[in-house]
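Researcher: Good morning. I'm working through a list of sequences from a screen, and I'd like to move beyond sequence-only analysis. For each chain I'm collecting a predicted structure so we can compare shapes side by side. This is the next one on the list. No need for commentary yet; just the structure.
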Amino acid sequence: MLSVLIETRNDEEGLARTLASLIGGAVEGVVREVIVCDTGSTDQTHRVAEHAGCQYATGGVAAGIRQAKGDWLLLLEPGARLMEGWIDEVVAHTAKQTMAARFSQARGSRMPFLARVFSGNRALADGLLISKRQAAASAKSAGSAEAIARGLATKRLDAEIWMAPARQERSPK
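Model: Good morning. Structure tokens for this chain:
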């Protein structure tokens, strides 16, 4: 069973889009829980999480990792959407692998080459599937989900993710 952690701050719209893409995983019994790890939102993030039946943790991803019940964690940015077929890929990976994994970017969400070169590389843009044990060890020295994802050796899953827009492109609240 999988615990999904979404670290967010003032991105209620992005959070709602990401939660909608997880419904199939919840129905299939793959997603055990979704924990919204808030880092100080002043918008309606808490209300979106509550209406969707998510758990809500303040204090960022480290608090969410401690609270998670699943042996595997899926870390996502608010606004990211998992595409059809992700459930089977995640189940297959967690059954036989111990290393972390990332999704493949959906063709339509890939940035042009020069935009990728000049934009900041977001380690969490492709999501991160990681064992709770490894995430907990990384969280001791990392202050955010992005920091946990940065620099990890990962396997590429044969399932796609529609990347969240870069934070500066999102409408401010």
